[in-house]
Amino acid sequence: MKVNESLTAGKAILRAGGFGDFANKRKVRVIRNPVVGSAEKRTFELNMVEILEDGKMEADVLLQPDDFVMCRPNW
Question: Which among 39, 42, 51 is positioned nearest to 10, based on CA atoms?
């Protein structure tokens, strides 16, 4: 990653090698630690099929330091 480069959840997943065979691409979560003065974590649920396959890039989330991207199995 280049200095000052913006990294979205979609780009991070692609750079990590994409999805595993059993990944649920429609329910990817970004978990963000609380900001100063707040006690709650924020969670964003993303449909990566819409973002990466259908081109709805406006629905992607710009990652911040210490964000956690989680993709559960499609069971």
Answer: 51
The residues spanned by each domain of the chain are 9-73
Q: Which of 19, 9, 17 is nearest to 51 (CA)?
A: 9
Cα separation of 41 and 6, whole Å?
A: 21
Which residues have C-beta within 8 Å of that of residue 26, sequence separation ≥ 6? 47, 48, 49
Closest CA to 9 of 29, 27, 23: 29
pLDDT, tens digit only, all 75 positions of the chain: 567 778 999 999 999 999 999 999 999 999 998 877 777 889 999 999 999 999 999 999 999 989 999 998 876
